[in-house]
């Protein structure tokens, strides 16, 4: 046990070095391409006065090489995030960008890096703060991915390989830019870690924060739903404890509500700012809907996002750009489905008893029972401790265990199943609804991709696939730093 812990700590220390090195590599490549090529669009450095803060004194303007270099590095969505940080939500389309990243940038630029404002100006300080937030969050996301992988895969080497692949993933440029990918990865993967560690309430907080970074953070409630479903089943049908089953269901429901609440609150905030106080004729179309969901309207109206809307011949290059990540996702799902078809048919209920009692805590009711025992009366406690399983219970459990599929480990263990379902939902959304080229970064925080890639690389039968995965990551890091940093379309 001691040797195992030392091995994990050693691997984690090495992983931190790789994560930092990968960020420095991306930064170096970005600087290289910026120095060799002229950006396609140079208007990002323009910064008109805030729309709603005209009475405030104008920010201090400083023009030197450092400030110009930082401000000229702002590209694509980074422009929106920095504008929101400085001026708030001025226009309807800006509500597509959730507030967590601007909040962290604002905190850092007004506290830790505030002394730099007289030297390089407020906007340049905000840019610097954004880069610090994204890159620091990425390093911690890599650490949490390793810890989650160790719990799920139960293989330190495979977990380390998966985490290294994540450090050099094909969407690497977005994890170093002023984008939400790093924060989303940190809070979604960190939330999973806390869920697997048994601290469900902390996991809910982290999942809720992931929903403050990206809208798809609300899908992390699916992990709570999966756990709740299995725990409630065990309480009701195996332990015959109706009250405990109700307790588990209510707790799961409240946790899911808490995860979705920040996103819903932000939609309400947008409704209040845009729709409140206007007559029916003055209201925007979405304000009049039965469910006035601002986010969906913005995505559809301003960016043309919708079911099959991107299925056009002229978008073929974008489908080709996204094809590697979509292929990897589909192969990982199909490979798992082929190995464990019974889990898909039964929604995980045909996992073996040993798998259900694994350290991942996704199927077992152990924690819920312990919590219930502590909160029960002394008489109830004695009854639970003293009650012995009947022969019928033992027979049923044994029969269920024997009828279940053989236990599998690593990527094909039952603990991976909810992650596969989550990945499947994300992949379907990326392919049929979103701008398909965004799939590269949209799916890049999904752990099963790296677990599957790690499994392929380690397999002697799949040497060429390991080479392809490495080449794919290297090519997209080079391509991403070249195109994205110079304001050319990438993903």
UniProtKB/TrEMBL annotation:
Keywords on record: Endoplasmic reticulum, Glycosyltransferase, GPI-anchor biosynthesis, Membrane, Transferase, Transmembrane, Transmembrane helix
Localization (cell): Endoplasmic reticulum membrane
Source taxon at top rank: Eukaryota
Gene Ontology molecular-function annotations: alpha-1,6-mannosyltransferase activity; GPI mannosyltransferase activity
Topological type in the membrane: Multi-pass membrane protein
Stretches for region Disordered: 373-409
Coarse class of the protein's main subcellular location: endoplasmic reticulum
Spans through the membrane: 94-113, 125-146, 158-178, 242-272, 318-337, 416-436, 467-488
EC number: 2.4.1.-
Family designation: Belongs to the PIGV family.
Function (record text): Mannosyltransferase involved in glycosylphosphatidylinositol-anchor biosynthesis.
Name under which the protein is recorded: GPI mannosyltransferase 2
The organism of origin for this protein: Capsella rubella
